[in-house]
């Protein structure tokens, strides 16, 4: 069974990995462009992760999984 929360978890983890790579590549740079980009990536990761958490509850209590049952309502 495919779950939206699983995909949100994977995307969030990949974005965290991307932010770590950006920070490592720009750690010696005196400009803050890399840090700002890493902050943006981490913000997106947090937003996707929180959205995934809401899907866990919707999947558990309301049988809401738009990838499986194609319902767009509860």
Relevant terms:
single chain, 74 residues, mainly alpha, 2 helices, 70% helix
Please describe the topology of this protein.
Elements: H1 4-25, H2 33-62
Whole-number count of domains: 1
Low-confidence stretches: none
Strand-residue proportion:
under 5%
Gyration radius over CA: 16 Å
Strands, count: 0
Give average pLDDT, whole number.
77
Q: How much helix is in the residues?
A: over 70%
Which shape, going by the Cα principal axes? elongated
Largest sheet: none
Decide which structural class fits the backbone. Answer: mainly alpha
N-to-C SSE series? HH
Count of helix runs = 2
N- to C-terminal separation? Answer: 18 Å
In words, what does this structure look like?
By secondary structure, the chain is an all-alpha fold. The chain has one domain. The chain has helices at residues 4-25, 33-62. The longest helix has 30 residues, at 33-62. The protein is elongated. The two termini are 18 Å apart.
What's a concise summary of this model?
The chain contains two helices and no strands. The chain has about 70 residues and is an all-alpha fold.
């Amino acid at each position: 069974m495919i779950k939206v929360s699983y995909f949100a978890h994977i995307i969030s983890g990949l974005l965290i990995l991307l932010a770590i790579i950006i920070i490592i590549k720009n750690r010696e740079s005196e400009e803050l462009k890399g840090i700002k980009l890493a902050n943006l990536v981490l913000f997106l990761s947090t937003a996707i992760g929180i959205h995934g958490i809401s899907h866990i509850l919707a999947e558990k209590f309301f049988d809401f999984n738009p990838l499986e049952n194609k319902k767009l309502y509860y």
